[in-house]
Structures are given as structure tokens and as C-alpha cells.
Here is the input.
Amino acid sequence: MAYATVQDMIERFGERALIDATRNLNQDRDVMDVIAINKKLESASATVDTYLQRRYEVPVRPVQLPVVDATCALARYALCQMDDSEPALQIQTGRKDALKWLSDIASGAATLDATAVPDKSDTWSRFQARPTSIRGNGLW
Here is the structure.
């Protein structure tokens, strides 16, 4: 399940940018490849889930705007890599910012209004407990 739609991509980046990113030699000059866009959105959504699944039930419901934004940025970068050219700096920066935000979510530095996954493991916790020790006259 994708966190974003083709319409979300159009609203953020414009129809012309998506046409240019997906056009191939066998297509009309003014037609975007909706199938390619949807595949990249699915892939980007799966990437987003890898960051969110440790802290939240995925797929995240309701889908929040920052999740849509991150998904669109990752999908746009992937679309622009379809040919042999390097994506523009603005597109690279969008991907970098999205991954940074997702890392912040995964680490707990940022949060979502979503259903949290309860921690049931013996090896992972939200904090590390340090055993106390007494040395001399004071603690630690």
C-alpha cells in the first residue's frame, strides 16, 4: 500500500516534471508513465515502512502529511534515476531530508500520531539501564 498517490506527486512537483521524469522514446511527449510512478511510490512506501516499523504499526493509519511528503521525495528521486543522469541537487536534497526525518522517527527524535508498537523483546528497549555501583563515599 502506497502512502502517496500520483496526484500527491503532481501537487508537489508539477505534472511537467513527472512527464519529463517518466517519458521514454516510445511515448507521446505530453504523457506521464503512471505505472512507473506507482511502482516508485510503492517502493518508496516500503522504504518508509522500514524506518517506521520499529516504533509504529505499519502501514501507518491515518497517513500524515510528513509521511506523504517523505514518500513523494523518495519516489521522485527514484524516478529521476531511471535514466543514466544524476538527479538535480534539489531532488537529491529532498531525498536526503526525507531520509533524515525518517531516521529521526526511527530513533525517537521525532514522532508520529500513530499507533505505537509495544516493545516485547528482551534485547531492545527505549533506554539503557545502567547498574548502580557504590565507590567510596558516593554513588557511581
About this structure: The two ends are 50 Å apart (CA to CA). The first helix runs from residue 6 to 13.
